[in-house]
Each structure stands twice: as structure tokens, then as C-alpha cells.
Recover the amino acids of this structure.
């Protein structure tokens, strides 16, 4: 974050302050190359193998600089090289495990969004670019000029996906319509305009898409989980106290009965 006096903060140009993403895709970029390079420099000067994507773009290059964040299919990546019509990003092993970026080949289209400036309007929702997992497209079903999309998800993500809640799919801010917890899927509807602006309709049944649940829901469930643990501990203590009280009453009654018999 940026710290300083209020006057200093007010003097800063809001265009220089980067925030998160919005899920409003700015353009579809095209993958130019997918390379495994064995000579990427490490912090100690040694070389190691890495996964590098080179993506043709236009909008994302406006105001871009080495080290800036660009969301590719909803994955927050760091620009490591910039040219007049393309940029490069490195993908860490964890990124490839969690996302669909390892499925990309030259010619693949990807959703692109620059990080949101502090003064910008957020027409989607807070998207961190931290993909939870890759789901699988199960079905496309047209209805009028709209398109239903059904997507699978895991038990781990299910608690965070709720009807009429937000979810980012390949970096696109979308509204969840239905959730089937037994069959482990959810669906959403794409209007005609959105269909023209993102990569999802260009994919096929069986293809993977990146999923990021609403981060506010994650924090809420995490907080509630801690509260639930504390309440559970208190309830356990209360049960033990009640059991001990019942035992004490039983012993007192037995002692009273024994004294009565002796009399």
C-alpha cells in the first residue's frame, strides 16, 4: 500500500495506483508462442526451466510496463517483456497446476484485462486474479439470443458458489444462475454482447475454464468458520459442565437416599 500524509495521497494521480481486476474483459489476445525455456535467470544467478507465454495484444499494452499485472484468462501474471504488439509472461508451476494456461497453444485466444486503476469504475466485481481451480465445460445451450453454459467444479469450491452470486470464469465477471451440489456443477447465462467479447463461447464441451470464487464470500466463510469453531468449543464445554452437574446431582441423591435408609 501507499503510506503518507493525506495531502500527499490526494496529490497522487489516481492513474498510477493499481488495484485488482474487475472481470470486465478488455480484449481477446492471441497466443503467439508457448515456450519452455531452460535458461530463465533465478535470484542467485543460476538458470532454471520455465514456461513462457507470448501474447499478441493491443489494449493491454497501453500504459504497460515491465512488472505490471495483466490478467490472462483471469490469471494475474507479471509482464516480463513488452514489444509494440505483444507481451510475455512467465507461468509458475503452481499457476499451471491451478489454471487452464497449460492447455494453450499458438493461436489460442485468451481474455485480457489490465489491473484496475484506483479511480476507475468497477462494472464487474472484485477479481483478484488468483484462480482457485480449472472447471470443465459440460454443456452449451442456446435460449433466444442468450447462451447457457454449464460448468463442473470441485467439492472444495462448492461452498463459495451460490445462486445470484459472483464468479469469475476465465477472468469474466459473471452471475451464477443455478448450483447443483449433488452433481457438482453450476450454470450461467451469457447475453449476446458478452458472447462477442470473451473466449468462453469459442471453447468446446470438455474444455477447461479458470474459476475464481468471489473473494468476499471466501473471507466471510473463513470468518464464520473461526466463529463456528469457537462456538463448537463452548458448546462442548457446556455439555461437559452439564454432564458433571448431572453426575453431581445423581451422587447427591444417592448419598441422601443412603442416609435416609440408615435412619
Amino acid at each position: 500500500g501507499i503510506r503518507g500524509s493525506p495531502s500527499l495521497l490526494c496529490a497522487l494521480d489516481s492513474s498510477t495506483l493499481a488495484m485488482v481486476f474487475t472481470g470486465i474483459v478488455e480484449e481477446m489476445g492471441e497466443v503467439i508462442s508457448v515456450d519452455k525455456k531452460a535458461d530463465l535467470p533465478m535470484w542467485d544467478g543460476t538458470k532454471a526451466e520455465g514456461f513462457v507465454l507470448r501474447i499478441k495484444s493491443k489494449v493491454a499494452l497501453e500504459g504497460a510496463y515491465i512488472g505490471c499485472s495483466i490478467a490472462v484468462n483471469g490469471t494475474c501474471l507479471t509482464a516480463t517483456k513488452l514489444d509494440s504488439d505483444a507481451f510475455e509472461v512467465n507461468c509458475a508451476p503452481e499457476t499451471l497446476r491451478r489454471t487452464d494456461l497449460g492447455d494453450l497453444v499458438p493461436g489460442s485466444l485468451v481474455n485480457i484485462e489490465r489491473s484496475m486503476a484506483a479511480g476507475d469504475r468497477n462494472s464487474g466485481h472484485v477479481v483478484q486474479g488468483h484462480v482457485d481451480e480449472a472447471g470443465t465445460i459440460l454443456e452449451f445451450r442456446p435460449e433466444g439470443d442468450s447462451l447457457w453454459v454449464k460448468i463442473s467444479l470441485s467439492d472444495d469450491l462448492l461452498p463459495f458458489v451460490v445462486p445470484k452470486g459472483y464468479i469469475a470464469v476465465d477472468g469474466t465477471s459473471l452471475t451464477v444462475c443455478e448450483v447443483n451440489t449433488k452433481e457438482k456443477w453450476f450454470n450461467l447465462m451469457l447475453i449476446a454482447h458478452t458472447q462477442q467479447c470473451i473466449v468462453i463461447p469459442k471453447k468446446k464441451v470438455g474444455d477447461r475454464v479458470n474459476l475464481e470464487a468471489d473473494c468476499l464470500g471466501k473471507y466471510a466463510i473463513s470468518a464464520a468458520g473461526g466463529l463456528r469453531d469457537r462456538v463448537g468449543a463452548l458448546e462442548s464445554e457446556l455439555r461437559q459442565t452439564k454432564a458433571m452437574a448431572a453426575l453431581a446431582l445423581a451422587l447427591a441423591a444417592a448419598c441422601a437416599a443412603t442416609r435416609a435408609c440408615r435412619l
Notes: The chain is about 25% helix and 35% strand. Confidence is low (pLDDT under 50) at residues 1-18.
